[in-house]
Amino acid sequence: MAQARTQAPAIGIDIGGTGIKGALVDVVHGELLSDRVKLPTPQGGHPDDIAEVVASIVDSLPAGDHSVGVCFPAVVRAGRTMSAANVSDEWIGLDAQSLFERRLGRPIAILNDADAAGVAELSYGAAGGTAGVTIVTTLGTGIGSALLINGVLVPNTELGHLEIDGGDAEQAAAYSAKEREGLDWAEWAQRLQRYYSTLEMLFSPDLIVVGGGVSKHHESFLPLLSLTAPIVPATFRNNAGILGAASVGSHVVTSPPPLG
Ligand code: BGC
């Protein structure tokens, strides 16, 4: 008889340049168990101020000794944030894991926001069960990327910063470029074509997943792209970071196992 999976719920927190979101998550099925709480990112994006907001989000969620996973728009290596986009430069090189652990009084996991979205799509969404190479991208202010090989994440790929035609790819092809430059869908799709063709040339992916809020309009731009790999909309948009962070956070041990 198949054994039912039991795993305690965990909290996922998604830190961005304008907002910080969190919820309690059923990490077996990838569903929110609470309302999604969203608070503005404090002015200046200083580490202590952001940790304070994260603590108040955790406090406002259903009580319990829940594991916590946090995702952040930066390279994250061994708990340290190695870059800073739209937040204070104090994050560069900071031991962010220890900062949140001190403030929340429990162990946490921290990872890149697009990597968290990749884990969510892999565990519960559009990238589940695909063998080979999958690239999950998030199109927003920047372009985030998660590279998955046979279901294993290669973290911190930062493929939004590929240099294409002499410039930073996300400057030309992120959703913010469409908005900033007033591009229509067809004009933006040309930028995306250049971007995703470059990803294909470099990685020969078996599947490309497109996330970010704009993916709800996928019918307006994905059919305009001509690629070798299937390119599909993400299952999760604004909750992908929360779900993936919670999934990774759920593997953090919050209390020691009983002796004996
Ligand atoms: C950052 C990435 C992040 C992506 C999406 C990029 O500008 O460098 O770390 O994943 O934006 O937020």
From TrEMBL:
Tell me a Gene Ontology molecular-function term this record carries. Answer: polyphosphate-glucose phosphotransferase activity
Q: What is its EC number?
A: 2.7.1.63
The record ties this protein, via SUPFAM superfamilies, to: Actin-like ATPase domain
Q: Which residues form a coiled coil?
A: none
* Gene3D superfamilies to which the protein is assigned, alphabetical: 3.30.420.40
> Sorted alphabetically, which InterPro entries does this protein's record hold?
ATPase_NBD, ROK
Protein name per the record:
Polyphosphate glucokinase
Species, as recorded: Mycetocola reblochoni REB411
The upper taxonomy is: Bacteria, Bacillati, Actinomycetota, Actinomycetes, Micrococcales
